[in-house]
């Protein structure tokens, strides 16, 4: 089992959350970035993070799908709430643009861009990373992010043009892989073209995935994202886990979330007390070595960012 971070999950939309998160832990997930979509979603996301401290980390945002229901005054209210709770937020998100004709019919491109610019300004003010929805609006979203002077961003579930992807990577930003990387050609191409040091894993749960037979996703399905990336990159899952977990820790400033990117062996005391435990001495040493490598990589990355 590997230590993984789900960098984009709508936990406020899940049922049976206790058992769902227990299952996530059993699959090796050591942290979840829970994103908000609007005022009510943000409140619930904060409540969930308080119930599961040091495991669920809240991002607060306003999804472009919600803009058709809001006027400028209401958008300002959403911004004020997030700013009032900014110290609890690990990031600003989910925010962004959506140029699907069904969304644009309810919220114009110009209105979406105006709102996104406001949220990016808030993120820059408090030096928060942003989690971005950019369907069919990849170039405009990137331009706004750069114009706002945002240092840290992830373009979640990216399916855009290779030319935009190159500019995202050159700008120092990240892209995240969902379980759709198992079958969605545009997403698979984007994941394949993204260097490992700029790639994250996510589920976007409870989104439905699959072609033909569909399933409602949960955080535990991060292992599908992991497997798809490993297959596309021609790497073993341990290497993908190590890279993506390190990337998530650096992007979201989660130095406390230090766990082995290889086996999830805890606690060590139980391994000693149970002779039949799967965690043997060799695996404990491998786990410790992996933790040491991850700590060193994070330290180097953090110092590099300070120099920049």
Short description:
Helix content is 47%, strand content 14%. It is of the alpha/beta class and 308 residues long. The chain has one domain: Metal-dependent hydrolases (TIM Barrel, Alpha-Beta Barrel).
Can you walk through the features of this model?
With 308 residues, this protein is α/β, with parallel strands linked by helices. It has one domain (4-307): TIM Barrel, CATH 3.20.20.140. It contains twelve helices and ten strands. It has helices at residues 17-26, 39-51, 72-84, 101-104, 109-125, 138-147, 162-170, 185-193, 222-233, 237-251, 268-273, 281-307, and strands at 4-9, 29-35, 56-60, 91-96, 130-133, 153-155, 174-177, 199-201, 208-209, 215-216. The strands form two sheets. An eight-stranded parallel sheet has the order 1-2-3-4-5-6-7-8. Helix 3 (72-84) runs parallel beside helix 5, helix 5 runs parallel beside helix 6 and helix 10 (237-251) crosses helix 12 (281-307). The longest helix is centred in the C-terminal third of the chain and has 27 residues, at 281-307. The protein is globular and about 50 Å long. Mean pLDDT is 87; it is low at 258-280, 282-291 and 304-308.
